[in-house]
């Protein structure tokens, strides 16, 4: 009984303090509250309100998470949300032994040849178009499935300025302009016209689903079957876009700091210092440009892990 009271109390705090934030932020806080209260129940720790949770209750939770194989970065993120809901939780990550962690990404940008091979395995024409648009624009999955509402305006703005405006499905409801690499202007225009024709035949859809979540799941399933899995999941196409855009900026002579800020903004992460670091550590892994090689050891580590799990060799896999 008290566990349910604690969950409702933490959920109320999350809703109260996150008013005006994006739905994904609120969902993350509610998920953290649900997981925390579940672990508290398993350990028979009784707390009825968020204000009753103290530092001594957090240590067993962290131990449980570590024993069950959760990554340190995931635990740190969850603890940050718990602190936001429970005002008496003040214990730091360092005091919990969680200070030694990096926030490097878990995806590797697939090569153009790898994308082409997987593309040939896709049977659905709508998914083929979505795959190409995701590569050329760096859209997230939700943004991608909602792009049917913006295709007409994209055709116009891409011709005029080489930009597209992404208003639908963005994190936090924050629309943004996306810079398209010069080499993608004509191919993207062709794909957008192709998308319009498919939508005309399918009643306004590229991929049908009873709701957005189901459409995203269907898209991911079809991409997985085509070969986009592991470190090369559909999200890795955002890394491919980021690296292609950085290479385009380098060819134009754009300074590195300005280029990484523009890439970060195009991906939807903003141009602040921390945001640029996020883009660099997550989307440029293994890329060589501007006289730099970004996280080569982590790049090899991800590829080895992928190779061991999926057992197929491509041009990225270590020989």
UniProtKB/TrEMBL annotation:
Q: Which GO terms describe its molecular function?
A: DNA binding
Q: Which InterPro entries match?
A: DNA_brk_join_enz, Integrase-like_cat_sf, Integrase_catalytic_putative, Putative_integrase_N
**Domain spans labelled Integrase catalytic:** 122-244
**GO biological process annotation, one example:** DNA integration
Name of one Pfam family that matches: Integrase_1
Keyword check for Heme:
no
Q: Which UniProt keywords apply?
A: DNA recombination
Residue ranges constituting the Putative integrase N-terminal domain according to the UniProt record: 8-85
Does this entry carry the keyword Coiled coil? Answer: no
Q: Where is this region: Disordered?
A: 1-21
What name is this protein filed under? Integrase
């Amino acid at each position: 009984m008290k566990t349910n009271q604690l969950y409702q109390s933490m959920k109320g705090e999350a809703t109260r303090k996150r008013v005006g934030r994006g739905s994904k932020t609120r969902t993350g806080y509610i998920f953290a509250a649900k997981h925390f209260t579940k672990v508290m129940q398993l350990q028979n720790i009784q707390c009825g309100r968020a204000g009753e949770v103290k530092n001594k209750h957090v240590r067993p939770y962290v131990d449980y998470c570590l024993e069950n194989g959760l990554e340190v970065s995931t635990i740190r993120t969850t603890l940050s949300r718990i602190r936001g809901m429970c005002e008496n939780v003040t214990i730091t990550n360092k005091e919990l032994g969680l200070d030694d962690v990096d926030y490097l990404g878990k995806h590797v940008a697939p090569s153009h040849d790898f994308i082409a091979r997987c593309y040939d395995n896709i049977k659905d024409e709508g998914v083929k178009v979505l795959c190409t648009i995701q590569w050329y624009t760096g859209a997230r999955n939700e943004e991608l499935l909602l792009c049917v509402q913006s295709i007409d305006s994209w055709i116009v703005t891409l011709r005029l300025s080489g930009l597209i405006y992404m208003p639908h499905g963005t994190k936090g409801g924050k629309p943004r302009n996306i810079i398209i690499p010069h080499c993608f202007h004509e191919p993207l225009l062709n794909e957008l016209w192709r998308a319009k024709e498919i939508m005309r035949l399918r009643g306004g859809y590229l991929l049908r689903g009873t709701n957005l979540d189901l459409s995203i799941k269907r898209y991911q399933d079809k991409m997985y079957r085509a070969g986009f899995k592991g470190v090369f999941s559909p999200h890795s196409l955002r890394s491919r876009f980021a690296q292609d855009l950085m290479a385009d900026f380098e060819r134009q002579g754009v300074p590195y700091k300005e280029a990484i800020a523009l890439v970060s903004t195009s991906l939807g992460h903003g141009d602040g210092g921390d945001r640029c670091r996020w883009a660099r550590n997550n989307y440029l892994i293994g890329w060589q440009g501007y006289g730099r090689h970004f996280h080569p050891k982590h790049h090899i580590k991800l590829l080895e892990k992928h190779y061991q799990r999926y057992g197929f060799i491509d041009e990225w896999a270590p020989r």
